Fold these 2 entries.
Entry 1:
Amino acid sequence: MDQHLRELYQEVILDHSRHPRHFGVLPDATHKAEGFNPLCGDKVSVTLILDADGKVADINFQGKGCAISQASASMMTDMLKGRSKTDAEALMDGFLHLVKGEDAQGLSPDDRETLDVMSGISEFPMRVKCATLAWHTFKNAVEEGAT
Ligand code: ZN
């Protein structure tokens, strides 16, 4: 990755971690889960509303930890709001490939571009768990976290 792009991506990550989107707890959440990454000490809790059509009507997160874990959670909530559960799972799948440096061909060009900010993580295997924490927590919330 060229130096200029790397710096730009770092800016985006820092901006998300300093000014997280959709931060807080949804009081009327239908699903929730908490995640913890013991390798780094990151914590993320996700609350969301799945509507009758299986769409993510709203989603929030709260957390504490390194910039990557919090920025990833912030980006995730931004991207997942308004998507169907199936789309959300496909997006997560693509993201998990991307941060491991694998081919993420399942992603739409727009999603690929947004998530590319996190693609540099694949050079730092220790940080992959920071980047994926929020996404795993989302999955747990949807699958097992009905309130
Ligand atoms: Zn971390």
Entry 2:
Amino acid sequence: MRITMKRKLSNQFLRNFLVIFLLTILATVLAFVLLSFTSELIADSLLKNRYPASAIIKEDYRQIDASAVVQNGGGVQVVDKGYRVVYSSGLDTIGKDKLTAEEFTTFLTESKSKPYHYDILYQPKGEFWLIVTFPTSIRLDFSLVHNKEAAAGDFLRASSAITFVALSYLLLIAFFAFIYSRVTAVSITVPLRKLCDGTRLLREGDYSARVDLRLKNEFAELQNTFNDMAARIEQEISLRQKSEEDRRRLILDISHDLKNPMSSIQGYAELLLQKSGLTEQERAEYLKIIINNGKRANRLLTELFELSRMDSPEFSLKVVRTDICEYIRQICGELVPQLEREGFKYEFEIPEVSIMALVDTERFSRIIQNLANNAMRYNPPGTLVTISLTVQNRQAVLEFSDDGIGIPTHLANDIFKPFVRVDDSRNSQTGGSGLGLSIAKKIAEAHGGDLILCQNENKGSTFRLTIPAI
Ligand code: ADP
């Protein structure tokens, strides 16, 4: 297919160029015809034809009136039979008073090739030559002379020479047209082929395919569009693959995390039902296990529900204009008893100013509650929890830090993904679902802000929560 495309284009170009070359010859011939026609038209008005030698010649050269010729920029010379210039007026291209027989013959034979027009007339009675000279304006000598009386052999030789030249000329034109069409076709077929190759690779699923033509013409434009398109498809595909991968992992994580509490509930409920002679204490213990696992499954499902609700298009916040300093101060106040009960130290730095923001107070407090719960759940008592609030670039920035065990830096981004936990085996036992930070980040984003984990050089972990101030 590639070869046929190339051939077709090359042949097309060859045809086009041949036609163009032949038309050029035709146009040249026409131009010559036109030239001879126009020169016929202007011939009568040219000085050399207005003042020919025959018009002024007299039997006695002394009676010749050269004034009109001289006035019009020409010249008149009379050469006698002894080759002496006996009379000269105006333009003189002989430049001598006396010529030898050879010099005069040379003058006569070469007069055609000089940039002057010579009209030479011999006066037999006066025995002199009259030479009327005018400077040539422009002269183009091109004429085909033919005489039927010429010898047949000469005629054959001359006509075969002309035929040979004409054929060579046509062959040369055909050859040039061929070379030129190939060169021109290559400048189109090569980039076209590269673009076709790229498109084919793309069709076959190689989304990393790009085209590099090293050109600056329209093909370069096409190349850029193609490369942009390929880059976009590649991006879309990788996004789709990633979200597909995320979805698969989410389902796997959900089923994995629900499986343990559900089988526990089933197992202990069956024990209660089937095992006879259980002591009151054993019964209470089993029931407690069932309740705890039920709570765990319930919490997991509630959080999952919350997470997917926030992803749905109908989700919207119930925001109210709130003084964020006042609001955070209030939440910190509510955290104090919990922190003290768990044996944690705390420090709050909330400025005594008012910073207004649009906040869904109920949801926003869940972020801080979640960060506090995590700090208390994953760190030993005695850990210092710090909450500070500042305003930077029209953003309220809340930093929530602890000097506890910290989160590995390689998990800085992943920790906000559902079900991601630092120590999976340990945390699934402690009851963490791995959904808290995902929900918190989504709430922050829904407010037009963000929740990130800062790279912490000191001990512990620092979360930065931002929300636009108004
Ligand atoms: P979980 O429900 O498991 O707490 P989160 O999304 O809230 O889920 O937290 C994800 C994981 O991040 C936790 O399982 C824990 O390993 C880690 N983590 C969160 N906060 C802290 C913290 N302050 N200190 C140490 N580890 C933490």
